[in-house]
Amino acid sequence: MCGIVGHVGPGADGVVVRRMCDALRHRGPDDEGYLVDEGVALGMRRLAIIDVASGRQPVFDESGNAAVVFNGEIYNFAELRRRLEADGHSLRTRSDTECIVHLYEQHGTRCVEHLRGMFAFAVWDSAARRLVLARDRVGKKPLYYHETDQGLWFASELKALLRAPGFPRDLDPVALHHYLTFQYVPSPLTIYKGVRKLPPASVLVYQDGRAVVSPYWRLDYRRGGPPTEEEAAERLRELILEATRLRLVSERPVGAFLSGGLDSSVVVAAMAELAPGPVKTFTIGFDERRFDERRFARLTAERFATEHHELVVTPAAADVLPTVVWHHDEPFADASALPAYYVAGITAQHVTVALNGDGGDESFAGYGRYLAHVVADRLPVPRMAGALVRRSLDAAPALQRRRPVRGARRMADVLAAPRPQRYAALLAYFTREQKAELYSPGMRDCVDGVDSYELLADEFRRSEAPDLVGRTLDVDVRTYLPGDLLVKMDIATMAHSLEARSPLLDHQLMEFAAGLPSRWKLAGRQTKAVLKRAARGWVPDAVIDRPKMGFGVPLGRWLRTDLRDLSHDALTDATARGRGYFEPAVVGRLLRDHGTGIDRSAQIWALLMFELWHRMFLDDRAAGPPTPPRLPELHVRDA
């Protein structure tokens, strides 16, 4: 696990690349390595997990023509080593990194097809004067790039690119527009004009001053699977065990995040079956019972006699906000980034590698919104009726203090949207109408004609899944999963030099799941039906049968109590009012509504995260890239 940076083009400078690497020290505290030659400079910071003693980078092929810097883990590296040696390659280390450069030597850019793992890497081919960048299939490892007339710059995090000379710290209003809808800036955009994310499952080739991005993988929801659900559940359990076994290979201590949900419980069950000793598990809880999963995590911990650690997050989590904002580099409004940061910090005090349950919802239809989407699609309600319900609810703001009414308001938004855009309407944190009201005239002009809902509608149109559930899963795997969940996990863990591994995101397991009938995933009102069948008798029934909770925080209460002053001060002072993006009166109304009991927490949080990011990264450009805030003491208490 590492951070990588580089520049290919005239004037490539090893001093600049070293400065870029310094910004990524948290990703790789154990080592650093560089390649500097005419027209190229590559760098990396290393968190040593595999081949700790001799796995230094860059790694070269036998000829010395190709070199690689790499972030991630290749879980099938032992098998790849045997194949490469049988093909006549000479490997000098025991690392997974070296497999990549020899696979490139043999297969060129198609080397990615042989890799089973999480990765972002750069290969410099000196003979062809070619740079190859690649990212794993679902986007577990990040990679950003920026083209100029001085060549191409790339880095694992935007904060490293900020140290490149002439980096344009100009906000992209279209990226902000999409962020307010989805809580994150969707790929390939970043919050900065002219800077891009390499999409998941993509290869970028930069040669002769030109970058070409090509996709190499997509899930196939039409393949079919075993003839019965019972056989599918049995095979699924085998695949989970295999994916977990591969992710237990490490020369450093390994543990697991245990949320109390089905997905992480299944991973812990597999670890307990495979690991030679007790599994170390880590759980975060809250004082507010509606958000606290510790009681379910304990059931799994007790079943498998894990070495279990529990901690409670308090509203003093606001103290870490500057640190979380700094690590994310661009606005990010998923409030569960706070408990993710905490659980990663506590876990890193005990282990260097942590397995998690990411990916189960997107493969097996675990979110309640999948059922809501299917129901909305089947309701014989004209769009006009949905709009009428929405206007009626808007006319009675007092009713919006009640959660069932807010749910009805969201469903009215969905029903009022055209069919291809309904899923985006279901996910939106700011609707199109709310954004139009929020924006200043200048901001409205900047995004005129840009429809955030169309981003997901386009993905629906491109999907070849045979039914609505399959298409919805396909869309989430390509948008929400890499744009939100995997960003949150990567940033939280890397902030503490902790490696996260996700058995349920093994691409072979995901391919198997994609081919199963949707009725085995969403069975009537039951979500994740086939995964629950596979888990039955393996994890406690109470965990399998519990309602879906999600990794949320009591944000609504916090913004009325401990975080009230911070949100009001940051969003209404002269600095915020003078930005020119939003109408101050509308922002003020959101704050007042929330104070009276109408839940505006998601919208206020999105605006607050944007404002804090803007102050840190854009307001004082003369000072250069911001330095990390002082790391606060973790405000947790023993459960």
Basic shape: globular
CATH class assignment of the largest domain? Alpha Beta
Calculate the terminal CA-CA distance, rounded to whole Å: 31 Å
Count of helix runs: 28
When the domains are counted, the total is 4
Annotation, overall tally of beta strands: 18
Query: Which residue ranges are poorly predicted, with pLDDT under 50 across at least 5 consecutive positions?
Result: 634-639
Mean residue pLDDT: 90
- Fraction of residues in β-strands: 15-25%
- Major sheet characteristics: 6 strands, antiparallel
The neighbouring-strand order within the major sheet is 2-3-1-9-8-10
Can you describe what's shown?
This protein has 639 residues and is α+β, with helices and mostly antiparallel strands. The chain has four domains: 2-215, Aminohydrolase, N-terminal nucleophile (Ntn) domain (Glutamine Phosphoribosylpyrophosphate, subunit 1, domain 1), CATH 3.60.20; 229-365 and 474-545, 3-Layer(aba) Sandwich (Rossmann fold), CATH 3.40.50.620; 368-471, no CATH class; 555-638, no CATH class. Helix content is 43%, strand content 15%. It contains 28 helices and 18 strands. The strands form three sheets. The protein has a six-stranded antiparallel β-sheet with strand order 2-3-1-9-8-10. It has a six-stranded antiparallel β-sheet with strand order 4-5-6-7-11-12, with helices on one face. The protein has a six-stranded mixed β-sheet with strand order 17-16-13-14-15-18, sandwiched between helices. The longest helix is centred in the middle third of the chain and has 19 residues, at 229-247. The chain is globular, with a radius of gyration of 24 Å. The two termini are 31 Å apart.
